[in-house]
Description:
Largest sheet: 5 strands, mixed, barrel
Distance between the termini: 51 Å
Low-confidence stretches: 5-19
Strand order of the largest sheet: 3-4-5-7-6
CATH architecture: Beta Barrel
Strand content: 25-35%
Shape: globular
Radius of gyration: 17 Å
Number of strands: 7
Helix content: 10-25%
Order of helices and strands: HEEHEEEEE
Number of helices: 2
Amino acid sequence: MKNSFLILVLSIGLLISCAENKRKQLPEKGFFGQSFSKDSCITVIHLGTIVSVQDSPEVKVCGTIGKYCKGEGCWISIENPNGKPVLVETSNKSFIVPYDIDNKKVQVKGKLIQVEPDSKYSYKIIASGVLIE
């Protein structure tokens, strides 16, 4: 029984360390997820005008990373100088973002979703791709 428990604990530790090592090996900049053209993007300030015209539109947003997931690397927030930040989640956790990306410039492509009024975020984007510059 003790051996089974020890093997279970060691296995979980190994899985966690492998995921962490994979994330540490990622480059600090570049595309994560699907790449996209870098030609034009909108700032978070202009998201309200898009949502008022379309329901769950595909957007390309640029800004500055505020916070990011320090665990799995599955989300970031984009700072909003006029209010609440925008939450960006990776689509179905299909890709991860690297460590140490505070205050870096970012472009995100994905589906824009409205959030509940009492949320700490102004909007949520389900990202198909992220470009950290």
